[in-house]
Write a structure and sequence with these properties.
- Helix 3 crosses helix 9 and helix 14 crosses helix 16.
- The chain is about 50% helix and about 15% strand.
- It is an alpha/beta fold.
């Protein structure tokens, strides 16, 4: 079953490039001009060296590894307002065309679906068959760069996240039995369902996959229709404002969404998700962490900005969203610390 309604994709979701940027990048400091002049010079050195290395036939892996590391180091020491002004200068440098030969980087930068982190982008990380043609058309340099970006620490963490979600789904089905109901918010292509034993064996009564992108909704309907999965067109705004009544669930999760939500919206969404849980049900949300080391490359060449959070940030959302006496909560890192998770189980 597919329910689709027309809407402005980002405007209806409370997630726009401007809202994300406002959270990440602060106002200019009094010493901005001085800092920016130095930062611009440092960035020029990083980019010119990469340009020279490409020209001299240095391996793509070595170049991108050094460049990503240098951009991370530069980003880490700069005031966010200075870094924000540096991003377009990096993007407009001639060496960017080299990095954009990577089909993964180019897809992220160009945003064919109109927003960051879309489901097709994640399929580059998964190495899914749906992106095989695009990868096959890449230049030798692009293919070599993709070999690096798809196995960067952040990409490894995303694949681990998919597998962790599959495990949580199957554990929920084992815990709650054949009447298990699940809600996935910002489901994308729902790749975690591919390996779900519970779904394969009919152990899930109802699995609602909600997403704001009609292309993702259509993909889920096509791939999982008739197997207990209900593809629904909807956004964060729809959930927070209760414009869609979806019911109650044993497991609700949002794995790739909170990277784009400020604390105010994240808390509102979390509170609403807790209301949609049955007694004993669990809500899980995830966020890229501050430990990520390819943030500079992502924000420049990939044009992919994220709200990074620490464990303390995650706990702040948890504690502001529910009475601690009514839940069992945990915050933990994934294996390589690039993603941090929070779980909130409703007592009862």
């Amino acid at each position: 079953m597919v329910r689709v309604k027309k809407k402005n994709l980002d405007g209806a979701s409370l997630i726009t490039p401007d809202t994300v940027a406002k959270e990440i990048f602060a106002r200019r400091t009094e010493t901005f001009d001085e800092q920016f002049a130095v930062a611009k010079a440092e960035a020029a050195i990083i980019l010119e060296l990469a340009q020279q290395q490409f020209a001299n036939g240095v391996s793509a892996r070595e170049i991108i590894h050094r460049t990503a590391g240098a951009l991370h180091g530069l980003r880490d020491k700069l005031h966010s307002s200075v870094w924000a002004e540096l991003i377009p200068l990096v993007q407009n440098h001639s060496v960017s065309e080299r990095f954009l030969e990577d089909p993964f980087t180019r897809w992220s930068f160009e945003k064919p679906r109109g927003y960051s982190g879309d489901a097709q982008l994640l399929d580059f990380i998964y190495g899914h068959d749906s992106i095989a043609e695009l990868v096959g058309k890449a230049s030798p340099l692009g293919a070599a760069l993709y070999d690096y970006t798809r196995d960067a620490s952040s990409s490894v963490a995303v694949r681990e996240r998919r597998d962790l979600l599959t495990r949580f789904v199957d554990e929920a089905a084992a815990r709650h039995g054949d009447e298990t109901e699940i809600l996935t918010i910002a489901s994308g292509h729902l790749r975690e369902a591919d390996a779900s034993v519970a779904l394969k064996e009919g152990g899930i009564k109802r699995w609602v996959a909600l997403d704001q992108d009609p292309l993702s909704v259509g993909s889920v309907a096509r791939d999982f229709g008739g197997r207990g999965v209900e593809a629904v067109d909807g956004s964060v705004r729809d959930i927070v404002l209760r414009t869609q009544e979806l019911g109650t669930f044993d497991l609700v999760y949002a794995a790739g969404l909170y990277d784009y939500l400020n604390d105010r919206v994240a808390i509102k969404l979390t509170r609403r998700c807790m209301e949609m849980l049955k007694p004993g049900g669990m809500f899980l949300f995830a966020n890229f962490s501050e430990d990520i080391v390819v943030d500079g490359y992502m924000e420049t060449f990939m044009n992919w900005a994220l709200l990074l959070r620490s464990k303390a940030d995650m706990w702040r959302i948890v504690n502001a969203s529910a009475d601690p006496s009514t839940i069992e909560a945990e915050v933990f890192f994934g294996e390589n610390h690039n993603i941090v998770y929070a779980t909130m189980r409703k007592k009862g």
